[in-house]
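Protocol step 6 of 9: fold each sequence in the batch and record its structure tokens directly after the sequence line. For illustration, a two-sequence batch is reproduced in full.

Sequence one:
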Amino acid sequence: MKPENHRPHTREEKIEALGRVIDTLDILRVECPWDRKQTNASLRPNSIEEMYELSDALLSDDTPNIAKELGDVLLHILFYSKIGEEKEQFDIADVADKLNAKLIFRHPHVFGDAVATDAHGVELNWEQIKLKEKGGNRTVLEGVPNSLPSLIKAYRIQEKAANSGFDWEKREDVWQKVKEEIGEFEAEARKAEQSDAKISEADRSRLTGEMGDLIFSLVNAARLYKINPDTALELTNAKFIRRFNYIEQQAAAQGVALKDLTLGQMEELWQKAKTFEHEGE
């Protein structure tokens, strides 16, 4: 949604605005004790936090905050580039030039003679191009960062494998695999419950493996139905929080501690929260 008072800027104005931020950062790097002491290592945790804050704004479709959080992310890009410049390794121009060269190289259907008629065709081209890039991926899955959150990593692994031809012939076939994984987890769970009142470490290890397989199969199903599992789960997290907060608020309004509500009372309030949400849709 575009703010009512937004005026599109010219190319020159955009370049000037970026230049002002670079100039301000140059000053802060010299004159501000906090900015002066920052390193790649010290900035990294803040960068991760800023990306999560941007993610929250995007999920909420909060236009003012999206612009604000993008600015915070941009600051970190400029900051790392400034540190690289100080070390005489690279600067923001090198970063931009490398990005531009990569965009052109990875879009031969636009800047070359390759053909891609849809987005999926572009993705298939990308996987092959990345293997040919100088300093690029040596294997298909090498481009998936180790530090990615597990759910996103599973999605990217499956997406890359599928773009290399390792995929289901029909997407509905994935449900047999999901059912198989549910059955295997359930079998291990029943076995663990029968063996001892307390689940042993060996049982827990097997259950952990089976649960991982089950989640991986559900991520695959989400991919096949064009659903990002991380986004889907975060939307459900937000929905659960809203409904649970409603239970807590209603308990407080009644002068009752949350822990003193019966499960039946909680369920009744939960259903009311659901009803209010549906009425607001």
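Sequence two, same batch, same settings:
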Amino acid sequence: MADEEGEQGKPKDPTALRGPGEGVPPAPKGKRPGVAADVGALATGLRTTLGEFFRPVVTTMYPEDKTPRSERYRGRHYCPVGCILVIAAENTDENRVSPGERYAKTYEINMLRCIFCGYCEDACPVQAIVLGPEYELSDTSREKFIYTKEKLLEPLPPDVEARLGAAPPPHPDPPPKGGGNTRP
């Protein structure tokens, strides 16, 4: 191969790179574009570049600047992937932890498995689980993603506390007992 190559690694014969029966393609026929066409193409490209240069910047400098999130955005905890672990224990007369018969001795949420579906929030009868607007869940340790009962009992952010403190909508009056018609 070194015998077939010229000074700078280029083959002496251009047909050496072609297969058998392939010749050198013919030169294009017709008018070649002139300098005016080249300048026009250059002007079109510059117009596009300058147009983009003077547009306002839409880049958000994350994490310093954050885009606003919807009020209904769910970012944090029934569970289809089994990320919630609850181990119940019985209340005794000597050690009464809650007013019920049992209490959660161990309550953990594994955020590495959570898919943020919100089923747990919907299923919780006392609104103890609230998905907040937090979405920056990253850390250097896997253990920090196991949320224990103590970690989950941290104070709520003011906006979540205000949302939970709002009075629920009034329920309609239940139907009278005895069923059927109630004509006077």
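Proceed to step 7 once all outputs are recorded. Observation for sequence two: The longest strand covers residues 102-110.
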